[in-house]
Amino acid sequence: MNRLTTPTRRTVLLGGLALLAGCDHQPRASFKGVDLADATYKGEFRLKDAQGRERTIADYRGRVVLLHFGFTQCPDACPTALARAAQIRTLLGKDRDLLQVLFVTLDPERDKPEMLKAYTAAFDPTFVPLFGDLETTKKTADSFKVFYRKVPTGSSYTLDHSLLSYAFDPNGVLRVALRHNMAAEDCVHDLRQLLA
């Protein structure tokens, strides 16, 4: 046989692998939020819940996790985000228990565990508040590329901070960031793709 028409073992092997890869390829999700598939960060945390138990994303495997950064004295952005999260749970219907909402405080100096617990429970009793010390809070925010800073207000202060909420799939992989101005229905669209 002519050597040009005879496939080598290497060619057959590479062709077979390419075919297998093509069979396993799944279409990329079409999110209304910010697709984080190509993000250079993974979004990791090791924080405490209101009972003092250490929590990581591994604790919530099997559920979609929606994580929001904020603080209890936030005048409007944080209450809006948590009210939307409660609405999302309602819109998910029978799948609502497959969603875990986490609220990470950026203000651990003032947001003590009991205060955090009462704050999140006012929106939905299933929401879990998380906190760390100042160093852990900064490290966690940095791992999500979250911006925040203290802004003096008279004898006290407030915080300026990023307004994205972050969604992990049931395998604990950070997949999408939901913009603050997204409607709850659009958020549900994205979260259902993570549940599929």
TrEMBL record:
<dbReference type="InterPro" id="IPR036249">
    <property type="entry name" value="Thioredoxin-like_sf"/>
</dbReference>
<comment type="similarity">
    <text>Belongs to the SCO1/2 family.</text>
</comment>
<feature type="domain" description="Thioredoxin">
    <location>
        <begin position="36"/>
        <end position="196"/>
    </location>
</feature>
<protein>
    <submittedName>
        <fullName>SCO family protein</fullName>
    </submittedName>
</protein>
<dbReference type="InterPro" id="IPR013766">
    <property type="entry name" value="Thioredoxin_domain"/>
</dbReference>
<dbReference type="InterPro" id="IPR003782">
    <property type="entry name" value="SCO1/SenC"/>
</dbReference>
<keyword id="KW-0186">Copper</keyword>
<dbReference type="Pfam" id="PF02630">
    <property type="entry name" value="SCO1-SenC"/>
</dbReference>
